[in-house]
Amino acid sequence: MQLEAMYQEVILDHYRNPLHKGLREPFEGEAHHVNPTCGDEVTLRVHLDGEGQDATVADVSYDAMGCSISQASASVMSDLIIGKSVKEAMAVGEEFLALMQSRGQDVEPDEDVLEDAIAFAGVSKYPARIKCALLAWMAWKDATARALGEAS
Amino acid sequence: MSEANRGAGGVVPPQGQGMNLLPEELKKDFPLLRRTVRGGRPLVYLDSGATSQKPVRVLDAEREFYERHNAAPHRGAHLLAEEATEAYENARVSIARFIGATPGEIVFTKNATEGINLVAYAMSNAATAGPEAERFAVGPGDEVVVSEMEHHANLVPWQQLCLRTGATLRWFGITDEGRLDLADLDELVNERTKIVALTHQSNVLGTVPPVERIVDRAHAVGALVLLDAAQSVPHQPVDVTALGADFLAFSGHKMLGPTGIGVLWGRSELLEAMPPFITGGSMIEVVRMEETTFMPPPQRFEAGVPMTAQAIGLGVACDYLAEIGMDRVHAHEEALVGYTLERLGEIPGVRVIGPGTTEARGGAVSFTVEDIHPHDVGQVLDELGVEVRVGHHCAWPICRRFGIPATTRATFYLYNTLGDIDALADAVRQAQKFFGTS
Lengths: 152, 438
Fold this sequence. Notes:
The complex is a heterodimer of chains A (about 150) and B (about 450). Chain A has helices at about 5, 10-15, 70-80, 85-100, 110-115, 125-150, and strands spanning about 30-35, 40-50, 55-65. Chain A is α+β, with helices and mostly antiparallel strands. Chain A has a single domain (about 1-150), classed as Sufe protein. Chain: A (Alpha-Beta Complex). In chain A, strand 1 (about 30-35) and strand 2 form a beta hairpin. The radius of gyration of chain A is 15 Å and the shape is globular. Chain B is of the alpha/beta class and about 450 residues long. Chain B has 13 helices and 18 strands. Chain B has helices at about 55-70, 80-100, 110-125, 155-165, 185-190, 210-220, 240-245, 270-275, 310-325, 325-345, 375-385, 395-400, 420-435; strands at about 35, 40, 45, 105-110, 145, 170-175, 180, 195-200, 225-230, 245-250, 260-265, 285, 290-295, 350-355, 365-370, 385, 390, 405-410. The interface of A and B includes residues 1, 3, 38, 41 and 66 of A.
C-alpha cells in the first residue's frame, strides 16, 4: 500500500510522542496559523538568543491541533531547528518547502540538512496534505519574523 | 422513462430486500462511477454532499446545446438566439415544475451561495431603492436569525449584511443530539426579526429542521424566511407552496446537474418588490446616462449572458430525478442512512455526530474515529477507493459546538448501494488497524 510511503514510522513516532510540545516562556515572537480547508491549528512561539539572522533559535514551543502529518511536522521541525542560527534554520525551511513542492518528482532531498524531515517526501505526492506538513513551518517563519522585528 | 429506470419495479437488489432501495443498475447511467482509483480499486463515491456525479443524459444535453444551438439567449433575433432562448426558458419550466413553483419565480444564479448573497445584498440595497423595497430594508435595531448548524454560505452573507447595516445577528443553537434547539424560538424570532435564514437539511449532521413551526413563528412576527436548500432539493421531494418559506436557494451540481448553475426561488410578490444585486446587461428596461430602470423578475436578477448550457443541463437533471421520483430517491437514501448508522454503530470508537436515527434526517453521516484525526481516516479510506469528505465541511461552528476539530463525512445519492456502505465500514476498520487503535 502507498500508505506506508506516506505514514513512515518516523512520522507516526513523532505523532505519538511529539517533541518540544507545549507553549513556553520566554518568547519574542508568536504566530497562530490555521489550515482553513480542514481546521488544523497551530500556535507557535520562538525564543531567540542574539539578534538578526545570526541569532540562535533557543526554543520553539507550540500548541497544535490537527492530523498526524501536521502534528509530526511540528515535532520534527522544532527538533531540527532548535540550536541552529536563524539563517541556517531558514535554509532548512527552504529545503523542506522544495521537497513538499516536488509533487513526488525526483528531487533528491538532502538528508544531512533535513534529517527526520525527509520522511515527509511521501506526503508531497498528495496535494491535499502538503499544507498539513507545511503548517508549523509557516507559523515558525511568521513568528521568527515577528521576533526579529521586535529585536531590531 | 429513462433508460436506467426501465424495469425498475422488477429488479430486486441482491441485498436489502424489504428496504426501499433503487435498482443498482442506476449506476450505469453515471459513466464516472465506472472508473477505478488508487491502483485499480473500484470507486466508492460517498461525497455527493460536496458534488454529485452526472448522468449521461445531462452530459449529452450540454454537449448538444453547444454543438447545435449555442447562442446568447434573450439577445438578437437570429434563429440560434431563438433556439437558445427557448431551451434556456424550457429549463426554467422543468426546474419550476420540479419544486412546485411557477417559472417566473425561478432566478438562475451561479449556485446556492450566490442565491443567498443575492437576497442579503438586495436587503442592504433596499435602503436606497424606493418605497417598494422598504420591507427588505434592515438597519440598527433589526435582527437577522440563523442557526449554529449553517453552512458558511448561509452564515457569512448574513454576518456581512449585519456589518453593513448595523443589524444584529442571532442564532439557534444545536442540541446534543444534533437537532435545532428551538427552546427559545419565540424569543429569538420576534418583532425585530427581519429574516430567518435556515438550512433545510444540514450538510454535516443530516438534520432536517421543523420548517413549518419556524415559518409560522416568523410569519406571525412579519419576518421573511429563507431556506438553504442545497442539501434538501437534491434528496427529498420539495414543494415550495407546501413549505411556506419565502426564499429557497439550491445548487445544480449537487443534484446531478452541471456546476455554475443554481437557483433562487422567491415568492413572486417578493421578487417583484426586491431590488437587484448584480446589475448590468439584460436586467435593464431603459438605460439613460442619468438613470436606469429594471426588468421585472426573474430577468431583473440575471445580469449578463447567463449560464445557458448549465441551466439546460440542470433542467434535464430535474426531469431525470422526477422520472425516478423524489419520494423513491428519498426512501433509498433513508435506507442507506439507516444501514450506515447500523454498520458504523458496530465499530468501537466510532461516534456519529448528528441524529442517531433516520427520523427527520437526510443522507449525510458525519462521524469521528477515536484517536485518529479525520484527515488520517480519510487518507486510509481514499487509499481503499472510498471517497469521503474530511474537515469541517464549511460549517466550522458545528465542530466547535461538539468540541471536535473535524469529522469524516459520508454522503449518499441515488446511485449508492449497500455495498458502498460495507466498503466504508470495512475501510474504517482498516484505518483503526493501520493506526493501531483497534
